[in-house]
TrEMBL record:
SUPFAM superfamilies: Actin-like ATPase domain (SSF53067). NCBIfam families: pilM. Gene3D superfamilies: 3.30.1490.300, 3.30.420.40. PANTHER family: CELL DIVISION PROTEIN FTSA-RELATED (PTHR32432), ETHANOLAMINE UTILIZATION PROTEIN EUTJ (PTHR32432:SF3). This is Pilus assembly protein PilM. Transmembrane segments: none annotated. InterPro entries: ATPase_NBD, FtsA/MreB, PilM. It comes from the Bacteria. It comes from Snodgrassella alvi.
């Protein structure tokens, strides 16, 4: 959970944040597998955050949604609503679907781009029931992958506006998987999930140092690590990660037009202070594309109660929550 306050469109203050690890078998493939346990952990996080903020944005998994970017000519005789209804005609009844859409951009040819997101209403209701039972009332729902894109767009707008019109590859490392996104000017061009995440690092830590799950998690985010950590754990993971990046790029290049050649790679969600720069350098060398390793939430000015060192340590876990919070401002 992330609590943001905005001084302006480009100035954020991070008032508070909370990280509560979920035990395995609560969420599986985007679905809630243990409602009661999820409610308990949501309540725990809410209690730790201690906030009365009512402008709450939550995320549904992209595994449970359909995301489309629809080109629209401004001279068309159909209204936006009519075009959206035509796309949703696959459903037997509109009572079975939850959807939302918005205008994203207008290109140089005068064509408007609409972002349409839809999900089965039952999936949305199941998620909303969990938040309701935890005493949380969301004001809006987003999709996790769009929250990552929002974090990327926010970072680009503030730090590197020259990338706005360029084709960017974003890799956000999560617990069990990495979300790969190819985007340009806020539009999703390609997405893929990579079966590689923190869990693989945890397995390596447990195997090499005979640790429990809790001990492996603590070591992963500790400032001090064994002398052979980089050679034994970090470097093999990074090399595997780079191979997965190369595989995603190959899939993209064989499925997309070359007019959207990737010009920058951004890696979110990786925390290894000793080897972060070497990871970006290795990616650049092996892909011939400039690469950066960043965590967008560090754009925000930390509140007085937040320890800078702790935030730096936790920042890799907060990309989705930051993207959701920015949308709510």
């Amino acid at each position: 959970m992330v609590l943001l306050n905005a001084r302006s469109l480009n100035q954020f203050r991070l008032e508070k944040y909370v990280v509560v690890p979920l035990p395995k078998n609560i969420i599986g493939n985007g679905n809630i597998e243990n409602h009661d346990e999820l409610v308990v952990h949501l309540q725990q996080a809410k209690q730790m955050l201690q906030s009365n903020c009512r402008n709450i944005t939550v995320a549904i998994s992209q595994k449970q949604t359909s995301i489309q970017f629809l080109d629209r000519d401004e001279n068309t005789e159909y209204t936006e609503e009519e075009q959206i209804m035509a796309e949703l005609s696959q459903y037997d009844s509109m009572d079975d679907v939850s959807y939302d859409y918005q205008n994203v951009s207008i290109n140089e040819d005068g064509k408007e781009s609409l972002l349409l997101v839809n999900s089965k209403r039952d999936d949305v209701n199941i998620l909303m029931d969990a938040f309701t039972d935890a005493g949380i009332t969301p004001t809006q729902m987003d999709v996790d992958i769009l929250a990552i894109m929002n974090s990327a767009i926010t970072w680009i707008n503030i730090r590197q506006p020259e990338l706005t019109e360029k084709c960017i590859a974003v890799f956000n490392i999560g617990y069990g998987e990495t979300q790969a996104i190819i985007m340009r000017h806020g539009k999703l061009l390609y997405k893929q999930e990579i079966n590689l995440g923190y869990d693989h690092l945890m397995q390596s830590l447990r195997r090499n140092y005979q640790l429990t799950d809790e001990e492996a998690w603590e070591m992963l985010y500790s400032q001090t690590k064994p002398e052979d950590y980089n050679q034994t754990v970090a470097q093999p993971f990074q090399q595997q990660f780079i191979q997965e990046i190369q595989r995603v790029l190959q899939f993209y290049f064989t499925s997309a037009s070359q007019e959207n050649e990737i010009e920058e790679i951004l890696v979110f969600g990786y925390s290894n202070n000793q080897a972060a720069n070497s990871l970006a350098d290795s990616i650049s060398q092996q892909t011939s594309i400039p690469a950066q390793q960043i965590n967008p939430i560090l754009l925000a000015q930390p509140g007085d109660a937040i320890q800078q060192a702790k935030l730096q340590q936790d920042s890799s876990l907060l990309t989705v929550a930051f993207g959701l919070a920015v949308r709510g401002l």
